Amino acid sequence: MILITGGAYQGKTAYAQQHFLYPITDGADCSFDTAKTTKMLKNYHILVRRLLECRSDAEAFTHLLCAENPDCVILLDEIGSGIIPMEKSERIWRETVGRCGCILAEKSDTVIRLVCGIPTVIKGKLL
To answer: CA–CA distance from 127 to each of 4, 28, 58, 86, 109 (Å)?
Structure first.
């Protein structure tokens, strides 16, 4: 598994498109079953929000995805910085995304963080 993370609009999708020839599935609107079988999944943070809205266990889903789809490339926005949200549901979402990100990073062979389009390897080797 490969995890590509970083802030919003930092070049994660462009980097993934340059380095992998897989079609990109969008976690913002794909089915949960598709998310578990696709080769490249962007907007994992939004997929987590959708899981929470359905009252599904996002962490259990993430463990399942890692087990069933270990060759997936996942793009995840870092959403934990900045002002703490006033709404409890937003704080829960932010916290859950962080925990799911930790699961993905642990299970990934490679973790890449992009800032201003520049990749930094956190774990593994740069592709």
So the answer is: 11, 26, 28, 39, 12
Q: What is the CATH number of the domain that holds 85?
A: 3.40.50.300
Are 43 and 4 in contact, with CB atoms under 8 Å apart?
no
Q: Which domain holds residue 111?
A: 2-123
d(CA 39, CA 57): 22
State which H helix or E strand residue 76 sits in.
strand 73-77
Kindly report, residue by residue over 18-60, the tens digit of the pLDDT: 999 999 999 999 999 999 999 999 999 999 999 999 999 999 9
Number of domains composing the chain: 1
Which pTM does this prediction carry? 0.93
CA 25 vs CA 16, 18, 107, 121: distances in Å: 12, 16, 20, 23
pLDDT band (50, 70, 90) for residue 127? low
Distant-in-sequence, close-in-space partners of 59: CB < 8 Å, separation ≥ 6:
96, 99, 100, 103
- Give the pair of three-digit tokens for residue 114: 């992009």
Q: Tell me if 98 sits within 8 A of 77, measured CB to CB.
A: no
